[in-house]
Design a protein that fits this description.
The complex is a heterotrimer of chains A (308), B (366) and C (425).
Chain A (H helix, E strand, L loop, with lengths): L5 H7 L13 H40 L3 H6 L12 H8 L3 H32 L5 H12 L7 H10 L6 H9 L2 H13 L3 H8 L4 H12 L1 H17 L2 H6 L8 H9 L9 H21 L1 H5 L1 H7 L1
Chain B lengths: L4 H43 L20 H7 L4 H36 L6 H13 L2 H11 L5 H8 L14 H8 L12 E2 L2 E2 H4 L5 H28 L2 H9 L4 H12 L1 H15 L4 H6 L11 H10 L4 H30 L10 H11 L1
Antiparallel strand pairs in B: 1-2
Chain C lengths: L17 H8 L1 H12 L6 H6 L8 E5 L4 H18 L3 E5 L3 H10 L6 E4 L1 H9 L16 H4 L3 E2 L2 E2 L2 E2 L3 E2 L1 E5 H6 L11 H11 L5 E4 L4 H10 L16 H15 L14 H6 L3 E6 L2 H9 L5 E4 L12 E2 L2 E4 L6 H11 L2 H11 L9 H7 L4 H5 L13 H13 L6 H16 L1
Parallel strand pairs in C: 1-2, 1-3, 9-10
Antiparallel strand pairs in C: 3-13, 4-5, 6-13, 7-12, 8-10, 8-11
Helix pairs in contact in C: 4-14, 4-15, 10-11, 18-19
The chains are: A mainly alpha (308), B mainly alpha (366), C alpha/beta (425).
Family (chain B): Belongs to the binding-protein-dependent transport system permease family.
Main location (chain B): membrane
Keywords (chain B): Cell membrane, Membrane, Transmembrane, Transmembrane helix, Transport
Chain lengths: 308, 366, 425
């Protein structure tokens, strides 16, 4: 699952307000306060237990990645390794293709994110502000395209990539991921929300459409652009099926593809849980960093995303 | 500036804008066309061809075979239909359990996290949402470890004196298990008749124990995302409304049921739609975690489509599976839209809070 | 040039790699091929024209490797051949061989020479992806092995090695259970008895994977098979039922446990970490055990006889040559070298591979006296029938076998039979 596109959130803002009821007596209120306290204690406890349940798989993975294989099998629940060993990480980084996978994932993610930011904002701006013939049709097509499930594209994308002679190359990994209807949609909605007067002024000064877009509108679009960055980064870092179908050489493996095949036992050499979990931990770190950096923006759905 | 020049200039701006509009759109249109529209057309052709994975399917290496690939899947005698039916069964149970569970869990989490009185809500919210940002490959690897026969989950169950199953290796369906617990081990003759190449008895197996792991995994990774959607909606329900309801004498449960849930209708709709679309396409977890094993009970149409094409050289069949899956998703979404819309009449209208009066209606919605 | 034409991927991003180099070196040829595809005659025709082999360029070899040792050994053999032929041969190791091969074929840029499994063979032979070079080989391969690589009467590929199933026995656990060399099981009953005796607590007496590739040996011992002499499906038979019933019985008595139930990925691993005392495995397990569990002491004996005498399964991989290879002559020459007695004996010494040619029988036994059980099985071993769609049928069989404990053998056989009948006709 991906980050929530800001749209979906803002759509929800349009909930109509019911009419408020009448006021009640003070006595009832006091009785309720006591019950309230008990309820809030129970609620807090529940919250704590649930939060622990959600976090524990990650804690266990980190702990296990520092265990020996025998220790991992014998004490799967323990959060403290019997003897701390970095063997799994050493093997990953010094003795496998893992660094290559990491580098490939980084290259693809950065390229896709940069490309999407540019293309989505260009197209979003055109749809929102530049009246051109056929805009309605383009917009309708965009919405239709968004409804196509990605799984349907698994085979045909391979055919197209192959026909374009991009199969098994970085271009094949990157370019198809640049097509991002949802991102265009987000940018369009954002641009529609800024007052046109700003651009009008710039236009009156004789600035061309690209100037207006580049030096007036785009700088104002930072919040929306950050949304695109987050979505694209996370989407392409975590992408799997496209990478499976777009390349075959071991030199082009990304983290997801490499680790998935490691897990599927393609390099079958036993269960090697510390190694696999170490890989899972490392591949989680970049998105985790992104998540914590932009946490406010992602989580403050009430204020942030909706306003967008 | 003279009055004559202004309109002219405006016109030039306009035509300039129109050109710029197309220019700005061009890269996106080319990319979307190339990688979304054309592929679908190409796959449609492959799905009615006999392309065997060698040579160019568009210049003579493939021949038109009409609906043969589709017929093999729907009416054929071989494994193709049986596997397709098996994958449909597996995925149907997956959808049937994941969609309601993730919706209810997400709503529950949102309500919890939205309560102003509780401390540490921010941290909890982070904890709930974090699984949603991590890659499905990484999470699947983690779950495979947690659910081994002597793994963390079974240790925990052990503390409760429950002997956990060998999760990911257990192909037995939970309905079959439940039946065999009450002594029904083999199907009555009536359930032996095959539908789409699979006995009715096998259709009714329920998700396998292994599939249950993927169901838990899905709820774990998606509930955070949907929690945020519900949270956004909840925050739009003004505190005033809640307050007035409290004053009205409604209990917390009644408030949830009669005010919050009805007002969350549109969000509910979105969550269920997204859930349906997402759950019918499960692929990454299967590719990483089980590749359809044990006993093909985690085989899904998406994975089957991949497997048919990319490892069995049956590209036509693979493409046909993808389109059938597409059709299923569309039909499901439309169906859900119809059902929820019918119930929607009146739901959106602002209404006065009268718990007793609204009870029957609320019961229907819960 | 229409954007929708296929041609070998050009890989501009990585000029150092084989494909890129090949595309560069054969620039003229590639351009010609492009012209042909552009006209719509189809990619299928072009390699036949250019496949004479005069175009040079390195050969690309794709293997699925069991580990570093195998990769190194194959690389050394390729280097040896290159020295003689003057043609470069480049090795890549696939993480997922079937998928990579399939995508390479579909992309029109397959490797020139590659491992091909018997299960995959017929699908590729059927769509014309494989160069049928069998007639150009002259070593004395075991006849039974060749059967797996015949398609429509033509020998398409040759086997690169061989193996059969045998019984692995953990010496220490055997001794501790009070058993001696006299107790090595010769019949089903004896096997069941010792397996029971060896199992305790979480440890199983015997393990093997729930696949035809293991259970099929018991079918053979009961006189059963997958296809009859004419290649028709013949699964739903009393012989096969007897075999499955026996396996089910061993599961029920906990003498046998599948590796999954022992938290292991495959039989060899369960045997290696001693969660099972015996395993039905092939000789590739010898290398894996030496690698992962170097201290384990074990003995390999032939599988017990069944009601109809001895029976086992044979395993092999073939050397495939792509029909779309730009240099099939060189590719076939490379294969000829790789299956030669010298090369196979080198592989045997380095990796323990069993040869695919009879000539080496005695030398191999001398080299590996402890493993002669594997060679003993060769004369009567059954292989994978070369039928298109067999891979899916075997997968179905495996899926059914996973649930054997709760199913009727007859039901399993009936459903596998109908699936196999659909592909054998």
């Amino acid at each position: 699952m991906s980050f929530v596109p800001a749209q979906t959130v803002s759509e929800q803002a349009a909930v109509e307000q019911p009419v408020a009821g009448k006021a009640g007596s003070g006595k009832a209120r006091r009785g309720r306060a006591a019950r309230h306290k008990a309820a809030s204690f129970a609620g807090g406890l529940l919250l704590l237990v649930l939060a622990l349940a959600y976090v524990s798989p990650f804690l266990i993975s980190v702990a296990t990645s520092f265990k020996t294989t025998a220790d991992a099998t014998a004490h799967p629940l323990s959060l403290v390794p019997e003897t701390v060993t970095t063997a799994a990480y050493r093997k990953l980084f010094l003795n496998s293709d893992f660094p290559l996978w990491f580098a490939n994932s980084a290259v693809v993610t950065v390229a896709v994110t940069a490309g999407r930011v540019l293309l989505d904002s260009l197209a979003g701006y055109a749809l929102a502000r530049l009246p051109f013939r056929g805009r309605g049709v383009v917009y309708a097509a965009l919405v239709a395209v968004m409804a196509v499930p990605s799984v349907v594209l698994l085979i045909p994308r391979f055919l197209v990539i192959n026909s374009l002679q991009m199969y098994d190359s970085y271009a094949g990994l990157i370019v198809p991921l640049l097509a991002d209807a949802a991102g265009i949609f987000i940018m369009k909605n954002f641009f529609e929300s800024i007052p046109p007067s700003v651009e009008e002024a710039a236009r009156m000064d004789g600035a061309g459409p690209f100037r207006v877009f580049w030096s007036v509108v785009l700088p104002m679009a930072r919040p929306a652009l950050i949304t695109i960055v987050i979505l694209s980064f996370q989407g392409s870092w975590n992408e799997l099926s496209h990478f499976i179908t777009a390349s075959q050489s071991p030199e082009l493996f990304t983290l997801t593809k490499g680790v998935a095949q490691l897990s599927a036992g393609a390099l079958s050499q036993g269960t090697q849980y510390p190694l696999k979990l170490g890989a899972a931990v490392v591949m989680t770190v970049p998105v985790a960093v992104l998540f914590f950096v932009f946490q406010r923006r992602i989580m403050n759905t009430g204020a942030g995303a909706v306003k967008e | 500036m003279s009055g004559i020049r202004l309109p002219r200039r405006r016109r030039s701006i306009h035509s300039g804008q129109a050109a710029a509009g197309w220019l700005f759109m061009a890269p996106a249109i080319v990319l979307l066309g190339l990688f979304l529209v054309i592929p679908i057309a190409m796959a449609l052709w492959v799905s009615v061809s006999d392309w065997g994975g060698r040579g160019n399917p568009f210049t003579g290496a493939a021949h038109f075979v009409g609906g043969r690939n589709y017929a093999e899947l729907l009416t054929g005698d071989g494994l193709a239909r049986r596997d397709f039916a098996t994958s449909l069964r597996n995925n149907a149970y997956y959808v049937l359990l994941v969609v309601p569970l993730q919706t209810v869990v997400a709503l529950g989490l949102a309500v919890l996290v939205n309560r102003k009185v509780l401390r540490g809500r921010g941290l909890a919210r982070t904890a709930f949402y974090f699984p949603s940002v991590t890659s499905s490959v990484a999470i699947t690897v983690v779950f495979l470890f947690l659910f081994t026969a002597s793994g963390a989950v079974n240790r925990l169950l052990g503390y409760l004196s429950i002997e956990g199953p060998n999760w990911i290796n257990d192909p037995r369906g939970v309905v079959h298990l439940a039946l065999s617990a009450v002594g029904v081990d083999s199907p009555p003759a009536a359930l032996r008749s095959p539908v789409l190449g699979l006995d009715v008895w096998d259709w009714l197996s329920g998700p396998s124990v292994a599939m249950c792991v993927f169901i838990v995994l899905a709820v774990f990774t998606t509930s955070g995302t949907f929690m945020l959607l519900f949270l956004a909606a909840l925050q739009n329900i003004s505190a005033e409304v809640e307050e007035s309801a409290q004053v009205d004498g409604a209990t917390a449960w009644q408030r949830l049921r009669h005010i919050t849930v009805p007002m969350l209708r549109p969000t509910l709709f979105t969550v269920i739609t997204l859930g349906l679309i997402g759950t019918w396409q499960v692929f990454d977890q299967i590719y990483t975690g089980s590749q359809g094993a044990p006993g093909k009970t985690t085989l899904t149409p998406a994975y089957l489509s991949y497997e048919a094409s990319f490892t069995s050289q049956e590209w036509g069949r693979g493409a046909a599976i993808a389109f059938l899956l597409f059709a299923i998703i569309v039909v499901m979404t439309l169906l859900q839209r119809m059902v929820l819309r019918e119930r929607d009449t009146g739901g959106r209208r602002p209404r006065r809070l009268r718990p007793s009066a609204t009870a029957p209606k609320g019961g229907e919605q819960a | 040039m229409s954007p929708l034409t296929f041609r070998p991927a050009q890989q501009a991003e990585r000029p150092g790699r084989g494909v890129g180099r090949r595309a560069l070196l054969t620039g003229a040829g590639a351009a010609a091929a492009l012209g042909v595809t552009g006209c719509g005659t189809g990619f299928r025709d072009s390699p036949a024209g250019s496949g004479g082999g005069q175009s040079g360029g390195p050969l690309r070899v794709l293997i699925g490797s069991s580990g570093d040792a195998e990769t190194r050994a194959v690389r050394a053999a390729l280097a040896d051949w290159s020295k003689r032929s003057g043609i470069e041969a480049r090795l890549s190791v696939a993480a997922d061989l079937p998928q990579q091969l399939s995508q390479g074929m579909a992309a029109g840029s397959p490797p020139d020479v590659f491992y091909i499994a018997p299960e995959e063979f017929a699908a590729y032979a059927g769509n014309g992806s494989l160069e049928p070079y069998g007639a150009r080989m002259y070593d004395d391969f075991y006849p039974s092995l060749l059967e797996s690589f015949r398609y429509e009467g033509k020998l398409v590929c040759v086997p690169k090695d061989s193996s059969t199933l045998a019984l692995f026995i953990n010496d220490e656990l055997w001794r501790r259970a009070g058993l001696t060399a006299k107790d090595y099981p010769g019949t089903w009953d004896e096997l069941h008895a010792v397996a029971r005796r060896l199992s305790s607590g979480r440890r199983a007496g015997l393990t093997f994977d729930p696949q035809w590739q293991r259970v099929g040996a018991f079918m053979a011992q009961a006189g059963g098979h997958l296809v009859d002499r004419r290649g028709r499906a013949d699964v739903d038979t009393p012989e096969n039922e007897k075999a499955l019933a026996f396996v089910k019985e061993m599961l029920a008595s906990k003498a046998l446990a599948y590796p999954g139930a022992l938290d292991a990925g495959w039989g060899g691993e369960a045997f290696g970490n001693e969660s099972a005392a015996m395993a039905v495995e092939g000789n590739w397990t010898v290398g894996a055990l030496a690698n992962d569990f170097p201290d384990l002491k074990y003995t390999v004996v032939p599988l017990p006889k069944g009601p109809e005498g001895p029976g086992t399964l044979q395993f092999t991989n073939g050397w495939g040559v792509a029909a779309d290879s730009a240099n099939t002559t060189a590719a076939v020459d490379l294969v000829r070298y790789l299956v030669s007695a010298n090369a196979q004996m080198t592989f045997a010494k380095k990796l323990g591979f069993m040869p695919s040619i009879e000539l080496l029988d005695e030398r191999w036994r001398k080299e590996f006296p402890k493993q002669s059980a594997f060679l003993d099985g060769v004369p009567y071993a059954q292989g994978v029938p070369p039928v298109k769609g067999i891979k899916e049928v075997l997968a179905e069989f495996g899926a059914e076998l996973e649930g054997l404990a709760g199913k009727k053998p007859k039901d399993i056989l009936r459903s596998v039979h109908s699936a196999l009948k659909a592909v054998t006709g």
